[in-house]
DNA sequence: AAGCCGGGGTG
DNA sequence: CACCCAGGCTT
C-alpha cells in the first residue's frame, strides 16, 4: 500500500531527506496465526471451549476487566484475582452500583489503585449509557482506558481491525525490524509499523486472535531475555535474529534512581481489639486506600518523640517496636517503623474508624501490610504468598522485614 | 518527554 | 539484586 502517496512515483535522491520516510512493512501474519492456533495459552478471559469460562461471544465487560487488571501486571498475578473480582462483581451494573469501599477492598494488593478508581467511574458511565462503546474512539473516552486498552478491547471484544501496542508488541516489532532506537522514543516508529499488520487479509479476518497471538508470542517465545528464536514462527523474517542482536532489543533509556523515604506509623487498639485506621487522600500514592495512621513519609528517619505530634490519639503510652518494615515502590524505597498503644474505649478521631482486624487487614495495600509483622503480638504474616505459586519452594525468608 | 503510580515474578 | 509486566494520567 502507498504510504504518504509516495509509492507511485520514484523519489529523487536529493529530495529523499525532506520527504517522510516510508513505513517499513511487517512480515506476513499467516505463520503467526497458524502458530497461535496450535500453541495459544488457555486464559480465563479468553473465549472458546478450551476454558469453558467464557462461552459464546466475547463479553466486553470481561475483556475490559482483564485488560485493566493486566496493565503492568503479570498474567500469573491477575489469574486468581480476576476470578475473584468477577464472582463479586459479575457484570458492569453490579460494579457500578457497588460502594467504593467494596471495590477498593477487592483491588487491595493489586497495585496502581487509580485503576480501581477509574474502573469504578467507567462502570458508572457505561451503566448510565446502557452499554460499552464499540469503537476505539468511544472506548478511549472512558476513564482508565488509554490508547492501548481502547485498541485491545476494540479488537478482542468487537473485532475491530486495530493493533494495540503493549510491551510485547513493542518488543516483537523492534526485533522483527531491528529497531535500535531506545524506548519510549521508539514508539513513534513502532506503532505505525504494527498498524500495518491490519493491511493484511488474515489479521483483518480475525483481529482479536491476531493481537492475542502477538501477546502470546511476546510472552512465551519472544521474551525479554533468552528469546526462543528456534521455535518462532517468524524466525526467517526477523532482522534482529539475522543480525544476532535480538537479546539487546528493544533498547531502553535508563531510568532515574529511586528515592529513599522514612515513615513511622501508630497502631492503636481499643479494649475490643479493634484497630484504628484511616483512608488515604483520594489521589496520589495509594490514593483512597486504607492505612495505619502515621507521620508523613519523608527523607529523614523519624524518632518516636519527633513523630508524636502525628499520633492519632493524644496522651497514649506509645511503644516503639523493634525492626523496620521495608517496601519498594516503582520510584521510591520506603522504610517504616511501628509504634503501638492500647486505647480506652471511645469514638475514633475525625476521618478515622475502629475496624475489626479480620475486615481491615485484607483491605490494606501491601506496603501497609508490611507493618503487621512488627506488631506485638504480630497481627499477620504480612503479604500472603501468591496462590498460583503454592509451595513457595524458594524465598523462605519473608520480604519486607529488616532487623 | 518525563515523572508518578504497586506489586510480584524471574533470571 | 535488576528488570519486566496486555499502561494511564498529569505536568
Automatic annotation (TrEMBL):
Give any GO molecular function from the UniProt entry: 8-oxo-7,8-dihydroguanine DNA N-glycosylase activity
**InterPro entries attached here?**
DNA_glycosylase, Endonuclease-III-like_CS2, Endonuclease3_FeS-loop_motif, Endouclease-III_FeS-bd_BS, HhH-GPD_domain, HhH_base_excis_C, MIG/MutY, MutY_C
Q: Where is the composition biased (Low complexity)?
A: 375-385
This enzyme catalyses: Hydrolyzes free adenine bases from 7,8-dihydro-8-oxoguanine:adenine mismatched double-stranded DNA, leaving an apurinic site
> Keyword Amino-acid biosynthesis, does the record have it?
no
Keyword annotations from UniProtKB, A to Z: 4Fe-4S, DNA damage, DNA repair, Glycosidase, Hydrolase, Iron, Iron-sulfur, Metal-binding
User: Which family does the entry's similarity section mention?
Assistant: Belongs to the Nth/MutY family.
Role this protein plays: Adenine glycosylase active on G-A mispairs. MutY also corrects error-prone DNA synthesis past GO lesions which are due to the oxidatively damaged form of guanine: 7,8-dihydro-8-oxoguanine (8-oxo-dGTP).
Name of the protein in question: Adenine DNA glycosylase
Amino acid at each position: 500500500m502507498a504510504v504518504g502517496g509516495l509509492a507511485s512515483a520514484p523519489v529523487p535522491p536529493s529530495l529523499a531527506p525532506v520527504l517522510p520516510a516510508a513505513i517499513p512493512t511487517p512480515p506476513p501474519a499467516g505463520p503467526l496465526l497458524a502458530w497461535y492456533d496450535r500453541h495459544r495459552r488457555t486464559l480465563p478471559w479468553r473465549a472458546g471451549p478450551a476454558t469453558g469460562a467464557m462461552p459464546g461471544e466475547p463479553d466486553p465487560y470481561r475483556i475490559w476487566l482483564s485488560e485493566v487488571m493486566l496493565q503492568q501486571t503479570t498474567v500469573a498475578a491477575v489469574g486468581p484475582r480476576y476470578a475473584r473480582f468477577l464472582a463479586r462483581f459479575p457484570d458492569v451494573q453490579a460494579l457500578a452500583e457497588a460502594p467504593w469501599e467494596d471495590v477498593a477492598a477487592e483491588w487491595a494488593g493489586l497495585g496502581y489503585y487509580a485503576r480501581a478508581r477509574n474502573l469504578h467511574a467507567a462502570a458508572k458511565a457505561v451503566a448510565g449509557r446502557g452499554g460499552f462503546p464499540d469503537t476505539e474512539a468511544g472506548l478511549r473516552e472512558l476513564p482508565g482506558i488509554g490508547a492501548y486498552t481502547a485498541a485491545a478491547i476494540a479488537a478482542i471484544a468487537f473485532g475491530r481491525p486495530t493493533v494495540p501496542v503493549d510491551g510485547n508488541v513493542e518488543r516483537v516489532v523492534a526485533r522483527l525490524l531491528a529497531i535500535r532506537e531506545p524506548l519510549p522514543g521508539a514508539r513513534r516508529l513502532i506503532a505505525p509499523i504494527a498498524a500495518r499488520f491490519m493491511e493484511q487479509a488474515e489479521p483483518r479476518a480475525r483481529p482479536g486472535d491476531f493481537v492475542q497471538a502477538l501477546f502470546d508470542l511476546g510472552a512465551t517465545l519472544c521474551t525479554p531475555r533468552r528469546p526462543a528464536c528456534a521455535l518462532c514462527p517468524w524466525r526467517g523474517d526477523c532482522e534482529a535474529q539475522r543480525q544476532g542482536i535480538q537479546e539487546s532489543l528493544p533498547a531502553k533509556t535508563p531510568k532515574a534512581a529511586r528515592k529513599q523515604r522514612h515513615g513511622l506509623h501508630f497502631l492503636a487498639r481499643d479494649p475490643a481489639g479493634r484497630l484504628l485506621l484511616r483512608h488515604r487522600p483520594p489521589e496520589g500514592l495509594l490514593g483512597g486506600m486504607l492505612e495505619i495512621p502515621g507521620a508523613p513519609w519523608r527523607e529523614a528517619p523519624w524518632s518516636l518523640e519527633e513523630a508524636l505530634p502525628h499520633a492519632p490519639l493524644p496522651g497514649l503510652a506509645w511503644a516503639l517496636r523493634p525492626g523496620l518494615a521495608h517496601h519498594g515502590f516503582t520510584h521510591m524505597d520506603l522504610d517504616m517503623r511501628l509504634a503501638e498503644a492500647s486505647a480506652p474505649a471511645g469514638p475514633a478521631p475525625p476521618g478515622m474508624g475502629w475496624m475489626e482486624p479480620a475486615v481491615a487487614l485484607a483491605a490494606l495495600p501491601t506496603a501497609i501490610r508490611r507493618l503487621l509483622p512488627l506488631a506485638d503480638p504480630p497481627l499477620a504474616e504480612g503479604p500472603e504468598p501468591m496462590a498460583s505459586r503454592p509451595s513457595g519452594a524458594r524465598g523462605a525468608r519473608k520480604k519486607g522485614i529488616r532487623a
